[in-house]
Design goal:
The protein has 15 helices and no strands. With 325 residues, the protein is mainly α. The chain has one domain: MetI-like fold.
């Protein structure tokens, strides 16, 4: 009996071809050329000035007659940490640190859900014309500077001449100290922040909602789902990745925040609640000429922000979310 010869199975040899970077660059050089200008901008205006961060660890001496050379300045005491120790022994800085954390946390808790809720409501409006009008009105406060909003605050909430208190007086109620009492000032501060930003911030969520497949809503309607059920089981899960990313980014601002808003809204009567790190740096660093101290405070503020972002991103990845990277 003849032995049947086994047919050899054909082998496929995969050849990995290395991409020559020179050929790749030659093909897409226009894209790299477009990228060169913003990279130069970042290097010149963002990274080169970071050499002066070492002022936080050195005795900065401002001499108008000589050129400032940060490399030759003497190191501060306590192995360069003199100004960090000084900051944490300063009662005004500790108050500013507390106020920054409290105001930004309240801003996050109250202000972060506001654009999400607004976007969900807009998505449910059946009349497109009315929807566009509401969107336009909600976006407009974003384009107002905080100086204008501060003037509006005085006109509306001043204790004696404010429009709100004048209406309360005519109705037989007592005046409310909106901007001259610390607890009321915090509520006013948070309220103005939500009013100024919720409309503009809702654009991202509306764009995410527009990317949800209409087939999901049609399938849910065929199963008898109502508007609320569609929103809860389709719209919100579709917004979840966007919400997570923006929440992580907002956590990085817990120790930050600009100076315009507190400077435009605060006054001497509420300094115990209104003085934040940004106003402290302006008052002590620029007006008081303590540049090393406030550079140390700014560096500490930035490091805490980075740690918060990395921690939030790590937790979100562990919970199965996408995160920032």
């Amino acid at each position: 009996m003849a032995k049947q010869e086994k047919l050899a199975e054909p082998t496929i040899k995969i050849v990995k071809r290395k991409t020559d970077w020179r050929a790749y660059f030659k093909r897409y050089w226009q894209l790299y050329a477009l990228l060169a200008l913003p990279l130069i901008y970042l290097f010149v205006f963002k990274y080169v000035p970071m050499t002066y961060v070492q002022i936080a660890f050195k005795k900065f001496m401002l001499n108008k007659n000589k050129q400032i050379n940060v490399w030759t300045m003497p190191w501060a005491k306590n192995n360069g940490f003199q100004y960090y120790i000084k900051a944490f022994r300063d009662r005004d800085f500790l108050y500013a640190l507390r106020n920054t954390l409290v105001l930004n946390l309240k801003d996050l808790i109250i202000g972060f859900p506001a654009p999400i809720i607004f976007a969900l409501i807009l998505n449910e409006l059946p009349f497109k014309g009315y929807k566009k009008v509401v969107q336009t009105i909600a976006y407009m406060p974003h384009f107002l500077s905080w100086v204008i909003i501060g003037s509006l605050s005085l006109q509306l909430f001043a204790q004696d001449a404010g429009m709100i208190n004048m209406l309360l007086e005519k109705m037989g109620f007592e005046h409310i100290k909106f901007i001259s009492e610390s607890s009321n000032w915090v509520r006013t501060y948070i309220g103005w922040g939500v009013w100024q930003s919720f409309g503009w911030n809702s654009i991202v969520y509306l764009a995410a909602i527009a990317g949800i497949s209409p087939d999901l809503y049609e399938a849910a309607a065929m199963d008898g789902a109502g508007r609320f059920q569609k929103m809860w089981h389709i719209t919100l899960p579709g917004l979840k990745p966007t919400i997570v990313v923006l929440l992580i980014m907002n956590l990085g601002y817990i120790m930050g925040g600009g100076m315009e808003r507190p400077m435009a809204l605060y006054n001497n009567l509420v300094m115990d609640k209104a003085d934040v790190i940004a106003t402290y740096v302006y008052r002590v660093g620029i007006r008081g000429s303590q540049f090393s101290l406030t550079t140390a405070v700014g560096l500490f503020q930035s490091l805490i922000g980075v740690i918060l972002i990395l921690s939030a991103n790590f937790v979100s990845r562990k919970l199965g979310e996408r995160g920032i990277w």
